[in-house]
Amino acid sequence: MLTSILSWLSGGLLTSVLQPVFAWLGKRQDVTLEGFKAAAGEDAAAYTAWLDFEKTVYTARLAAASWWGPKLLCMLVGVPACLHVGMIFLDSTFTFGMGHYGSLGIAKLPPDYFDYEKIVVDFVFGVSIVGPMASSVSSWLHRA
Fold first, then answer.
1. Do the Cβ atoms of 121 and 113 come closer than 8 Å?
2. Distance (Å, rounded) from C-alpha 67 to C-alpha 75?
């Protein structure tokens, strides 16, 4: 009789009570696992986006650092032209206590060179103003 009671407890009662409990615990573990998978996927996507951003930043820095030729030309051509135009501007604007304009005696360039100097100055100041705007528009147009 004891064996029949034990077999009934182990077979029928324990199975009918423990099976739902184990099923509930298994589903709870599945929910936790799915939550972990979703969070890991979001973290991986965020990390990938961060790596893409870092790649873009370093590519831009490398391009800016390797662009030394035009910078050298700008220094050799643009700086003297801008300084000369600036000195003519100052000389023809202020008297510097001498009573008349042009008191420093800075001569203007001959017409051929004056046109060249004007183009250089226009380019230097035009690039300094339009360059960042064009870069911003370009980056906006090429956004992913």
1. no
2. 13
Q: pTM to 2 decimals? A: 0.42
Task: Compute and round to an integer the Cα radius of gyration of the chain.
Answer: 39
Residue 90 CA, distance from chain mean position: 40
Q: What is the DSSP string of 35-76?
A: HHHHHHHHHHHHHHHHHHHHHHHHHHHHHHHT-HHHHHHIII
> What are the tokens at 72?
């050298």
Tokens encoding 36: 């972990």
| Model confidence pLDDT, tens digit, residues 52-78 | 888 888 888 777 766 677 778 778 888
Q: At what angle do helices 79-93 and 111-141 cross, to 10 degrees?
A: 120
Quick: pLDDT tens for 97-142.
777 777 788 888 888 888 888 888 888 777 667 666 666 666 777 7
For residues 81 and 120, the answer to whether their CB atoms sit within 8 Å is: yes
Distances (CA, A) of 144 to 15, 44, 46, 53, 103: 57, 18, 15, 11, 58
